[in-house]
Records
---
Amino acid sequence: MAKPMVVEIPHELGRDEARRRIDEGTAKARAALDKSGIAINTLTWTGDRLDYSVTALAQTVDGQIDVGQDMVRVEVRMPLLLSIFAARIQKIIGKEGNNLLLTKK
């Protein structure tokens, strides 16, 4: 396992609204990814922490999303083989996280 990758996304939504948006976003992601051959194995909330596990290309990636009052912390643990994509994955998480948390609804 490579060193975990961490992305922190600031927001001004408050914990409850940020969690609601993440929950809604993961439901949409699951529907979209199921058609692409990427499997979401687990999405489990414990308080304000979402534990997840995703399998793609026969490799499993897991981690947590911790929802805070003004910050969301995304931790991704991936196999060494996939760690070569870490910078790209980090950029995507940051962009999509900002879209999800900073857009007015």
Note: Strands lie at 5-10, 39-46, 49-56, 59-67, 71-77.
---
Amino acid sequence: MRTSELAGRVGVNSETLRYYERRGLLEEPPRTPGGYRDYPLGTVGLLRFIKRAQELGFTLDEVEELLHLDAGGPDSCEVARALAEHRRSDLAARIRDLQRMHDSLAELAATCDLPRADRRCALLAAIDQEVGR
């Protein structure tokens, strides 16, 4: 299948496919007599795997490692699990950071409920302080 058809099926653009080829995530497909790339049908599944792994937060380097592990044996499962646990740990830390940011913004927004004469916009002051004016 041609580049545009493959890209459309998976929801990426043609440049993404060429980038994945350069990175080694996709093998360069054979060419038609007219010089067009002719991807095998199995490439759709491979690209869906790559996109799903990215949605789960894996970097392209980690996706490449997962692809190599997929062809391995039982030991590969342990390495894949270690990668997944590392990703989970990173996500947990990001969630904690986002929760702290959420709570801080809620506190700052709550000060807006004070009578006008009694308030100074803590949100604007906090942002201004970070800018270092």
Note: The CA atoms of residues 85 and 130 lie 34 Å apart.
---
Amino acid sequence: MSETALIENCINNSAVAQRELYNRYSGILFGICYRYASCRQDAEDMLQEGFIKIFSKISSFENKGNFEGWMKRVIVHTCINYLKKNKKFEDQVSLDSIFNLEVREESIASKLLGKQVMECLRLLPIGYRTVINLYAIEGYSHSEIGEMLEIGESTSRSQYIRGKHVLESILIKKRLIKPDVDRVEWLAYLSN
């Protein structure tokens, strides 16, 4: 079924089309949810809420731009709302505990650096992880992030800078980058 037909059938509440849409895009959209979630269960809940929103708002998609991009924006906003609703941002983490995070060893040594960076990103406290996801991966500005998370633009910037430093220390601790040499822009790996 073409994407246009799939969208039209979903607008008409076709269960077959909704299942097809889910099967086509759930893997990609789950990956986004997993970046924001603290655990797999939270990611699954975010994905479920996201698809409910996609199905209920699909008629607002005007066939302008990329449909997958539209769904990704719906999912990102769903993840942010889920975190706010469940008060995930209220967790207080001391700086000492951040720098003493337990770093899990990789089960397969040959994983790509991009995947390793993403796993290290998951070790960050939710506030840092969310701002890094929104800014470095999703491409939102600090002003937009501030509005989404109901924080100041300067708070978004400082969370990003602090999170980036903590992530860098984790990468050094895991020996994915070296502290004494110029290193590649490892944040570029986040968008892969």
Note: The CA atoms of residues 98 and 150 lie 23 Å apart.
---
Amino acid sequence: MNVRMLVNGAPVEIDVPGMRRLLDVLREDLGLTGTKEGCGEGECGACSVILDGQVVDACLVPVSQADGSTVRTVEGLAPTPGGGAGDRRLDELQQAFLETGGAQCGICTPGMLMAARAYLDAGGGPDEAAIREAIAGNLCRCTGYTKIVEAIARAAAGGAA
């Protein structure tokens, strides 16, 4: 199947079996290895990406469902002013994770970032309960989520501590 989609702002056209997982196409065919596979069953959220504005588990999405869609992965978070890779800086959410210690081993971090980005893009604020609900589909085995929630709240408040 010929699949066309916009991935991190760039048009992509790829010929793959339609039932191939979006996760595998992103990682293996497009080289976007930031999206992680945790459980492969849609339970952990490590493979979360934003598909047409909604957080989805890429391990559960056949690539045929992404045809004609917009996909955003963790690689697409950091803006590139002027288009030069040398000018790349962190997204304010990534910066907040760095400053608060929200990232531990790194397996859940890309999925957490994508769930948090969707929450913030939808107008989410620094409310702890709302943040916890927004990331409820993402599991972290390293932390008690405190630093992750703190990072998202910091980004929601515009970087204020």
Note: The first strand starts at residue 2 and ends at 7.
